[in-house]
Design goal:
37% of the residues lie in helices and 20% in strands. The structure holds adenosine-5'-diphosphate and magnesium ion.
Length: 659
């Protein structure tokens, strides 16, 4: 059902909801609160002076707004609570004035000053009777918590009657219905309601997820692949052509790949390795073997920049051995494009490199034998076209820089074989990381100047412009101004953020790669795999806003050459947590710690999240549910119970040609 059909949702709000990834009524009712406010209403006679409390009151005199500065106002009004008449003040909420009708009952949240008989409110609520437990949602500009509460409530009044937990498990565990669960999770009356409803919603989410994994595993085990007849000495030929010695883990991965590719079963392998661990070389080996067996390979990167980067570095090595390699991008001229597509069709190209759109752009292959996907989640990539039309079953490989603890990897990547690259290439210097308070910013600027003098480049990350309703966040534009002042406007600064168009982003990245831009200020949109060896310093503002795994991935953009690199984490809070990064450069250790400290946190980083982020489940704290869901979904598949369930039939259709 469409969002617009819901009372209160117009085009404006619909657009805003879209940016929270809410596109349908189902999405909206599955936009779960991430926490709750437990409102404990007290009598004004019992609350302590100047301590946070919530009281009931009645408006007895409407409000007056005073402007203190242009962006700063105060609203004063009188209210009575029990027998005490209060002067209430609230800052920057002038818009509440119209709701403060004399005689209206409200909830005041804030601090009571007995001496002055005044109440400084941090919030005022108008819906007292209904909710003592208030859901709190992740927000964005223009969508307040109250709007979400209201619209979700409206949405829930529509007839929502889907229920994705198969009946046998719903009955087995005595789960409440989805409809009840949705109602309770969004407006619980007591703590137990939250527990009861979230359990069933978490199970639903994890069951579906594990169903996909288990089903993929099943179809993959049945899939016939390409049997290649390649001599073992091809390995030496490849290795001898490299400008460096491979690490121990790279060698193991290469062995894994060789064994996969000569077997008649289809390869379905994930190469999991920290940023900079050298996954591309390992991918090149697979491409090389595939080439020797007279098949074509396709390598897909998440962005054009990364595709170009791969094109350059891979051409240097595989081009020399004799492979014909082409790059296919959206920004190419049509004539050029068509020529490449024709070549592909005839099998004249051994390796095609492009973005994830590569396979869905009318491209056909003569003899496609290998598809490699770099830094991207899996379920989103639709390879249906080539696979169904051509009837071929290429081997598949994924490259991921998201180091996750092995136990979890085995479950959530349960359908894939795993090669883990832990050892870093030798000679690589560890990134020196320092946590700095904002008062120590001079040290950071000094260090920046030092690096700039060496003609090195710098990344500066700010968590935000997408989210500047929170006051302590440095917007990228603030930062630009500050840095311009600090360096007397002599340094070329570039800005990158999610609101730029793709071409604009690519242009700025290109300028940075070519060294025209010296300092790149960016939100986290900056690519995971970007490789600019001349950048030696990473400065991350408001670092406490990020999980350790994300910070580690961000800092992985430096230290990519043999220059000593530095990372400065600026923040005033959570310094202890961030110290983990000062101590370690090991992505697996860090993700383990992140897990310990924050639960799921941002285990999957920013980019990779994709289908791996859950709406309500948490891989760590809900691990027991995950295991149960894994077991149940396997049973569900093994006993072919899904055949009677149209919802799971549809999932199967969607994923059967993917992967
Ligand atoms: P990632 O795993 O992040 O994709 P890359 O494959 O881009 O890492 O490798 C990062 C850099 O390290 C590249 O410039 C690559 O040429 C280099 N590299 C890879 N393996 C080795 C090695 N064994 N010794 C030295 N340098 C290496
Ligand atoms: Mg890479």
């Amino acid at each position: 059902m469409e969002l617009k059909e819901i009372k209160g949702i117009g085009i404006q709000l619909e657009k805003k909801l879209n940016s929270l990834n809410i596109y349908s009524v189902e999405d909206l009712v599955e936009y779960y609160p991430y926490r709750y406010n437990f409102i404990n209403i007290e009598s004004i006679h019992n609350i302590k002076d100047m301590e946070p409390a919530t009281i009931k009151a009645t408006v007895i005199e409407s409000g007056k707004v005073g402007y203190i500065k242009r962006n700063f106002n105060r609203l004063n009004f009188k209210a009575i609570s029990d027998d005490i008449i209060l002067n209430v003040v609230i800052f920057n909420r002038a818009f509440l004035k119209q709701h403060l009708i004399v005689g209206k009952e409200i909830l005041l949240i804030g601090k009571y000053n007995k001496l002055k008989n005044s109440f400084v409110a941090s919030d005022i609520k108008f819906n007292i009777l209904e909710n003592k437990i208030e859901p709190v949602y992740h927000l964005m500009e223009g969508v307040t918590n109250n709007i979400l509460i209201k619209e979700i409530k409206n949405a829930l009044e529509y007839n929502i009657n889907y229920d994705n937990i198969p009946t046998i498990y719903r009955e087995k565990y005595n789960f409440i219905s989805k409809k009840d669960a949705l109602n309770l999770i969004h407006s619980p009356n007591k703590k137990e309601d939250i527990k009861k409803s979230s359990l069933c919603l978490k199970y639903e989410e994890l069951f579906e997820f594990m169903f996909k994994i288990n089903y993929l595993k099943k179809i993959n085990s049945k899939c016939k692949g390409i049997k290649r007849d390649i001599p073992l000495k091809s390995k030496e030929t490849f290795i001898n052509n490299l400008p460096f010695t491979l690490t121990k883990d790279q060698l193991t991965a290469i062995d894994d790949i060789y064994n996969d590719l000569i077997k008649p079963e289809r390869m379905n392998r994930l190469i999991l390795g920290d940023v900079g661990s050298g996954k591309t070389i390992v991918a090149m080996y697979a491409i090389y073997i595939n080439y020797l067996s007279k098949h074509e390979s396709a390598l897909m990167a998440p962005t054009e920049i990364l595709a170009e980067q791969h094109y350059k570095s891979i051409s240097q090595i595989l081009g020399k051995i004799g492979l014909k390699i082409s790059l296919l991008t959206g920004s190419m001229r049509k004539k050029e494009r068509l020529a490449i597509i024709a070549d592909l069709q005839e099998g004249n190209i051994d390796l095609i490199i492009g973005t994830h759109a590569l396979l869905s752009e009318g491209v056909t292959f003569k003899n496609l034998g290998l598809v490699i996907t770099d830094e991207q989640h899996r379920f989103g990539v639709n390879q249906r076209n080539i696979l169904s039309e051509k009837g071929v079953v290429p081997d598949v490989m994924y490259l991921s820089a998201t180091p996750i603890p092995r136990t979890y990897a085995l479950t959530i990547y349960g359908d894939l074989d795993l090669s883990i690259i832990k050892t870093k290439p030798s000679g690589r210097k560890e990134i020196i990381t320092k946590v700095k308070k904002e008062t120590e910013i001079k040290d950071v600027l000094y260090k920046m100047l030092e690096e700039l003098k060496l003609n090195h480049q710098i990344y500066v990350i700010s968590p935000l412009i997408e989210n500047n309703n929170e006051l302590d966040l440095k917007s990228v534009f603030d930062l630009e101004e500050k840095l311009n002042m600090a360096f007397n406007r002599k340094i070329k600064i570039g800005i990158l953020h999610g609101k730029l168009k793709n071409e604009e982003k690519e242009k700025i990245m290109q300028d940075f790669k070519e060294g025209n831009i010296k300092i790149l200020i960016s939100t986290t949109v900056i690519e995971v795999g970007i490789d600019v060896p001349n950048s030696t310093m990473m400065v991350i503002y408001n670092a406490d806003r990020f999980g350790l795994a994300t910070l580690h991935q961000l800092r992985g953009r430096v230290g990519r050459g043999d220059l000593q690199s530095f990372c400065y984490l600026i923040c005033n809070k959570e310094i202890e947590r961030l110290k983990v990064l000062e101590e370690s450069n090991d992505g697996f250790y860090i993700s383990e710690k992140d897990y310990e400290l924050r639960g799921q946190g941002d285990l999957f980083g920013q980019k990779q999240s994709g289908d791996m982020t859950f709406k309500i489940a948490n891989l760590k704290s809900d691990y027991a549910i995950l295991l149960q869901a894994q077991k149940d979904s396997k049973e569900y598949i093994d006993n072919e119970l899904y055949k009677d369930n149209s919802y799971y039939q549809k999932i199967i259709q969607d994923i059967s040609f993917i992967n």
